[in-house]
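Lab notebook, page 48
Experiment: co-folding of the full assembly
Goal: obtain a model of how the components sit together before planning crosslinking
Operator: M.T.
Materials (sequences as entered):
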Amino acid sequence: MSATFVGMPAFPEAARAATGDAQLRHNLRRATHTIRDKRAAVVGELDDWAGLRAAGKAVKDRTLRHLDVYLERFEAAVTAAGGQVHWAADAAEANRVVTDLVLATGERDVVKVKSMATQEIELNQALAEAGITAYETDLAELIVQLSDDLPSHILVPAIHRNRAEIREIFRDRMAAWGAPAPDGLGDDPRALAEAARVHLRERFLRTRVAVSGANFAVADTGTLVVLESEGNGRMCLTLPDTLISVVGIEKLVPTWSDLEVFLQLLPRSSTGERMNPYTSTWTGVTPGDGPQEVHVVLLDNGRTDVLADTVGRQALRCIRCSACLNICPVYERTGGHAYGSVYPGPIGAILTPQLRGTGGAVEAALPFASSLCGACYEVCPVAIDIPEVLVHLREEVAGGAGHRAERAAMGAAGWVLGDRRRLDAAQRAASAARSLAPRHLPGPGAAWTDTRDLPEIPEESFRSWWRRRSGPGEGAR
Amino acid sequence: MSGSRERILGRVRAALADVPAAERPDDVAVPRDYAAAHGGGERVALFAERVADYRAVVHRVPADGLAEALARALARRGARRVAVPADLPGDWLAAADAVAVPDGALPVAELDAVDGVVTGCAVAIAETGTIVLDAGAAQGRRVLTLVPDYHLCVVRADQVVDAVPQALPRLDPRRPLTWISGPSATSDIELDRVEGVHGPRTLEVVITE
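Observation: model returned without errors.
Model output:
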């Protein structure tokens, strides 16, 4: 895959293009509304959802506040179970570690389980540069890979494609990557799923190395957990000789029994099911069953910067369910590509600027890619207050370079509003000149008034009216 | 590599400068006032209903009717050779016409060629319609229930628990676990669920009580 988010335009420009794409709008509306309803139905089944949510939040907070303890505990447990733990400070180091591990096996093909962490570090590109081909096996990831596209959703990276487009991609591109699509392939989802099964079957049965992520990593036991639907995860986690899992350091949970919270929260929030079809857990190496060489790469890549921000830290509670994307009125209209990152939607708008910093144009625009309606916070299974973090990041961006005109205007307003005499003088002047007030602002303010009416200036200010009405004694106060 | 270990742990500790030095992990309170289970009816009946919800085929039979039920299921499926874990109880397939192929270390190609697999399970969860395999008694290694296209699974009524919180204490995290809720499926095309991708496309469950 050579497609990359690098060089994408910032959100306002990308969103303008996306919202003009009628097919995209149609696909997204249909998909997000389907999943919203499913989620609401299965969440509504549980009368203790609020309790589960509070527990999920607290378990993650406990983990994050003592992350060093849990990381060391996890490492010791994995090692004791026959696995090997590697630490990667950034994307480049993680890619180097994985590449070296694959090269050491002598293999040049790897099968991959869908993983956000490996998308984030652009592992496939790094492997390709070393002559290693990574085959995505999740159906949606396969669609994205075959069409040299970019993911647009955390759970369903090809959510922007409808069945007819998927058929075209399979028909035109499958042969270049392996078994071709069957003749006369239709656009029935059943037929498309069957085509994916046939395309990947041989690959699963013969590939000796797999790369995965993990949904959870249990510190006490060293257990990794992957939730999936198709069985491609089981194939990758079971059949190869070598398994390499890239795991963000925030994926830890303290104990095995803590999973009782997340195995209820995650499936219902993400695919809207009581339970996803397959969940695999493994702890190091099991003799005679599954991969006999098991590696875990613990990835920082900006997470410790997020951790250092006491307001933004809560973003690390995220369990990547994508409920916030599905409910978001902005995401529904722009789709995921406009966010310029593998993490789109509301969670992406707070995660990307924190992981990468707010220095770049894409990152600085993201905290503003929201109407602050708060629907994302309501559906978040670990209660991340996304609007709070958005506002916090807006402050950070506004405090940085590049907002001089706005800061000057706010400074002037503060000077006027901070003093009674200055405010009186300004209001008298405004009332006297009210017939001259324009309907639209000139210069840089023009864009703002394109979609808004300027408020009318009253004949007399409230303060002046109050003074006149209540007599000189009162008004002087 | 150890350099990065120290670097990351150092960054984590620096990032947590606001956490009081005396605070221990357990000092961070975790409210546990969620339910252990959510009711929803009689446990085994609920399990059967929820598994069927995922379009798995479900039967409830008396314990002494198991061999007969398995024989009927395999005959309906037209399965002639089925893989089984080496320790599958001998009487389970006593009435079946199908030939049992016991797994020692069957090559993947051979597993790909059988007509199905018959196993037991470790735990079943009523509320979510989930079967958990732990590679223990009557289950075999993970690949056994993965490569064949048809999985016939026996669940004893006393293996069924109400909900997820009761399942975890019964399971040993050191064993490789597979939680199965219906046949393999995908929602990747327009978020509509379609059954049958890479895992077994047909899951049939026989509950004995």
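Interpretation: Chain B has one domain: 40-208.
Next step: discuss with group before ordering constructs.
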